[in-house]
Amino acid sequence: MKNSPALRLRIESARTEIDGNSVFMPEAKCVSNVLLKLARGHAAFELSQLCRDEPDHFWCGPIASLSSKIREDFDSAHVQQLFGEIGSRNYQRLQVAQVTLQSEAGELHQVAVLINDWINVQDDRYRYLAIDDVGELVIRIVVSEYLACEVVWRLE
Questions:
Q1: Which among 67, 98, 81 is positioned nearest to 134, based on CA atoms?
Q2: Are 35 and 27 in contact (CB under 8 A)?
Q3: pLDDT by residue (tens digit) across 108-155?
Q4: Could you tell me how far CA 143 lies from the centroid of its own chain?
Q5: Domain of life, per the record (predicted)?
Q6: What are the boundaries of each domain within the chain?
Q7: What are the residues whose beta carbons fall under 8 Å from the beta carbon of 32, sequence distance 6 or more?
């Protein structure tokens, strides 16, 4: 800190006191940059897709700030409509579930459904979901079950 007055100033400016306790408010731009780099890494590693362009959608914030309906959708596994890159890690992880549907006439039909579920890197610390489906790449990330992120790139 002695050798880097600029870093010291940034840390001191992020510090505030609440009820006598020191609290650090991270720089939002830095947090966003880290999450975007993680999302790009997951897109490349899991989906075999390089995402060098700016995303079409980027959101990050406390997961508790999501409404219950949006949180449920965010946390759900993805039902895959189309295959992504054949041979990608994501393609190898898809699960097939057999679902029985009943028509209005009472006829039963069995349908195979492809499920793309979350990858838990470390329980309650880091998980992500990488989706390549219907012309979109979607990366969802949750850190410490507190910070959530969703990044979307539309494919052409």
A1: 81
A2: no
A3: 999 888 888 999 999 999 999 999 988 899 999 999 999 999 999 999
A4: 9
A5: Bacteria
A6: 26-154
A7: 58, 60
